[in-house]
Amino acid sequence: MKLCTCIRLCLVMWRVWEDLDGTQAEPSVPPTTGQGPESVFEFTVMSYNILAQYLLEGHPELYIHCSDKVLVWSTRLKGIIQEIKTWRPDILCLQEAQEIHFQKQLQPVLSDLGYTCVYKRRTGSKTDGCAVCYQHSRFFQLSVSLLELRREGCELLDRDNVAIVLLLQPVTSQSPDQTGTPICVATTHLLFNPRRGDIKLAQLVMVLAEVDNVVRRCKAIGRECEVVLCGDFNSFPNMPLYQFIKTGQLYYHGLPTWMISGQEDLSHQTHPRRVYAPLLPSSLGINDNCQYVTAKQTESPPSGKLKYSQGFLLQLRYCPGACERPRDLALIPGVTDNTPDQHEKQPCTPTFSNTVCHCLNLSSAYSHFITGTDRQEVTTLHSNAGATVDYIFYSARTERIRGQTDKRLHGGLEQIGRLALLTEDDLWSLRGLPNEVFPSDHLSLLAKFKLRISPL
Ligand code: KL2
Known about the structure:
single chain; alpha+beta; Deoxyribonuclease I, Chain A; seven-stranded mixed sheet; 12 helices; 19 strands; 23% helix; binds adenosine-2',3'-vanadate; 3'-5'-RNA exonuclease activity; Endo/exonu/phosph_ase_sf; Protein angel homolog 1 isoform X7; signal
């Protein structure tokens, strides 16, 4: 074996594949009658910021620890292709793909590997962008949205970031009458500026609104829809922007803008810039629930008529008062004692004003710690420090409770594996990033999911 191959193999071994199957046991209840047998569809998703060469060359101070050789584009290109070939993800989401390099060099190779690619360049003078590539033997593309996160006349949306939102239909061979739940795959690379979390949050709201729109279009035709949201969010774990994605709610009014992403600690500032409500002007047509406002919703009801809309009244149906059986109402099991189906509740209605919400129920494929330890993982590393800024979020399978006994897991994706990340120390022992093995200043993230497919 050639020495360089040997070194490569040894170093690739640093990243361990973790099987997570079996951690989410299905409660042992018989299937509801009427539902046929389920089959499963397994697929992998990679999110990878491949470091645009023009950005590398524009910020040499970030790569002073690197040998010249590992910074040459032709060398890095080979490494990036090798990384993709090693793991062959079913869905590949790229950030910082330089347009000319993507179109002339990466896409032809990806095409030969069986991928169909969608690319969106950043606006303005930026020459990199995002791409989503999927194995066309495994998915059928139902829709595509290419988003520009710059909007004229909106103070917080004045930067050149973009996003891609695809709706993919799994193609299954097991049985032709079984088509899997569609999967909405979204990727973005949010603004870098560590001081401007307000802009990152506004950009994220735009992406979530498009995802919500795709999900709702599916639901309108009676189909569930799963979500994978990944990319480089330029935000740290557990900081407000991250918490917003995971919990579905963020009270943002008054937050210092640096704190939203937590990328840099500016707590020493006595008069920090803060974000104030409303985050986005109503003219943008996106409400605090990260949903597009339809013309119908903005219309005010004719005067003297309907004071409360049907939508408003529907929101009240599960308020605590509405769920309590009045004392003099006879108990009819299953009717007057029923608590609402958790899934049917409307979790995306903001509890407070000055809050943004979404109802996508997202979990992170990574825990941000090396499994079983308290050592922090990182997804990127520059001359100064390592950090986690890249994520794969997915709509997780949740427990749906009907009455006291019937507990069933509902819809959602089950994560069944991931490629472990590394710690900052691990990466420094490999001479930092990029190096001979890892061709970008980010590591790839790779997660494997299982989708249960019921007959239509
Ligand atoms: O942090 V990044 O790298 O997600 O890996 O995203 C941005 C930064 C990317 C696109 O804007 O370019 C990098 N200092 C350090 N890195 C920078 C800077 C900067 N001033 N500006 C852009 N980037």
